[in-house]
Amino acid sequence: MHKDICEILISEEQIRTKVAELGQQISEHYQGKNLLLLGTLKGAVPFIADLARAIHVPLELDYMAVASYGDSTVSSGIVRITKDLEGPIDHKHVLIIEDIIDSGLTLHYLIDLLRRRNPLSLRICALLTKDRKRLQEIECDYVGFHIPDRFVVGYGLDYAQRYRNLPYVGILKPSVYEGSQKPQTEHQSPAER
Ligand SMILES: O=P(O)(O)OC[C@H]1O[C@H](OP(=O)(O)OP(=O)(O)O)[C@H](O)[C@@H]1O
Ligand code: HPA
Ligand SMILES: [Mg+2]
């Protein structure tokens, strides 16, 4: 386990099983429909890459870059879109693929924006949903795991852009972001990884 992680919440194996289940459910629902998987950059990249391969109906992939956390463990409250979709969605069934729902602000903003573009349907699939009081309520159609209100990293999720490459989802040691310990460095010895 990485030295900055205090607990593995969801293992690689658990993720693999859940992705297969979600892929099955999604395939059943979208049979015969013009499906667009909309991934949110950057956190949802590993999830959408695995999930797309577990969905067995024709689909398109596109991405929006949406960010609000920056280098913090709490939302700035300002959602910035730095990359938009390539084309219109009014003839598509859009399924948003998110890594995590935390405050709810990101998805609230995104849903509002996309509804105004009149997709044939709009649904949400999130790998993780945090058990906390949300700033915006979100109805999620497909949920991977409910997790406690702790800051997690791995499988796409970052702290200050690090840890996205961990193959599992783990709780980050609070000492990392409370300042007494620096995040993973480029010059880490193999024993520290
Ligand atoms: O429900 P919320 O409180 O809005 O949090 C969820 C969002 O926050 C994170 O994105 P982030 O801003 O860190 O961008 P990133 O995906 O590039 O890491 C995460 O990937 C979700 O998109
Ligand atoms: O717990 C989290 N970890 C990483 N990124 C996040 N974005 C919202 N919540 C989280
Ligand atoms: Mg982030």
From TrEMBL:
Pathway: Purine metabolism; GMP biosynthesis via salvage pathway; GMP from guanine: step 1/1; Purine metabolism; IMP biosynthesis via salvage pathway; IMP from hypoxanthine: step 1/1. InterPro entries: HGPRT, Hxn_phspho_trans, PRTase-like, PRTase_dom. One of its GO terms (molecular function) is nucleotide binding. It comes from the Bacteria. It is found in: Cytoplasm. Keywords: Cytoplasm, Glycosyltransferase, Magnesium, Metal-binding, Nucleotide-binding, Purine salvage, Transferase. Pfam families: Pribosyltran. Its EC number is 2.4.2.8. One of its GO terms (biological process) is GMP salvage. One of its GO terms (cellular component) is cytosol. CDD domains: PRTases_typeI (cd06223). It catalyses: IMP + diphosphate = hypoxanthine + 5-phospho-alpha-D-ribose 1-diphosphate; GMP + diphosphate = guanine + 5-phospho-alpha-D-ribose 1-diphosphate. Residues 14-159 form the Phosphoribosyltransferase domain. Its main location: cytoplasm. Its cofactor is Mg(2+). Belongs to the purine/pyrimidine phosphoribosyltransferase family. This is Hypoxanthine phosphoribosyltransferase. It comes from Ktedonosporobacter rubrisoli. The lineage of its organism: Bacteria, Bacillati, Chloroflexota, Ktedonobacteria, Ktedonobacterales. The gene is hpt.
